[in-house]
Amino acid sequence: VAGFAEPIGRLIDALKLLPGIGQKSATRLAFHILKRPPEEAAALARAIQDARARVRDCDVCGNFSEGEMCPICADERRDRGAICVVEEAANLPAIERTGLYQGLYHVLGGSLSPLRGVGPEDLRVGRLVERIREGGVREVILATSPNVEGEATAVFVAGIVRPLGVRLTRIAQGLPVGSEIEFTDDMTLGKALESRREF
Ligand SMILES: [Zn+2]
Q1: What count of other Cβ atoms lies within 10 Å of the Cβ of residue 47?
Q2: What residues are neighbours of ligand 1 (ion), with CB under 5 Å?
């Protein structure tokens, strides 16, 4: 970056890799970090490194996890008869925040997108089928985003789950079209979850 000391330019370039952070925001963040005490920057760097090194995918649902099983899959109080299918682990906190869902999750790891080169083989669907075949699942709730990719993903997953004979529902009624689960407010998402329909 022109006009900046080399390490600042590198910091700005690194921050720009984050979603939603352009040149202007990256520059603002970099200058903020440089004005704060060195310990604060060290703690931030450590937190990023630790999280990246210690967090992996849950073997069962694909959620972020420190061990083989994430806290939700390991929680005996969760309803094992319901599996809510989401595109990304980042969608989970939004659904948890509604306080209306007590079941388990399944993280697909993306959504179908020919444009971005994401096909059926890139989604974690085989493990979902295994989980349903293991028994005890009553309902699979498709909570993919109400945009084009999310809809295509819901249709694809439904095609695979339907023959397995469990109840199949879809949220998103009442969600603004084209929106993303992650950024939907709790009340709207809660309503969408409660008014889910057969799919
Ligand atoms: Zn899990």
Answers
A1: 10
A2: 58, 60-61, 63, 70, 73
Measured in Å, residue 130 CA sits from the centre of ligand 1 at: 14
Ligand 1 centroid to 183 CA: how many Å?
A: 22
Running DSSP on this structure, what letter comes out for residue 76? T
CB neighbour list of residue 1: distance below 8 Å, 6 or more residues apart? 8, 9, 12, 13, 27
Closest among 22, 24, 27 to 10, alpha carbons compared: 27
Contact 101, 95 (CB under 8 A): yes
What are 80-109's pLDDT values in tens digits?
999 999 999 999 998 999 999 999 999 999
Q: How far is the CA of 158 from the centre of ligand 1 (A)?
A: 21
Residues 6+ apart with CB under 8 A from 95: 84, 86, 101, 105, 143, 181, 189, 193
Q: Say if residues 85 and 112 touch (Cβ distance below 8 Å).
A: no
| Residue where the block lists tokens 């069962």 | 60
**Cα of 102 to ligand 1 centre, how many Å?**
13
Q: Please say whether the beta carbons of 91 and 182 come within 8 A.
A: yes
What is the pTM (predicted TM-score) of this model?
A: 0.82
pLDDT > 70? residue 178: no
Q: Ligand 1 centre and the CA of 52: distance in Å?
A: 18
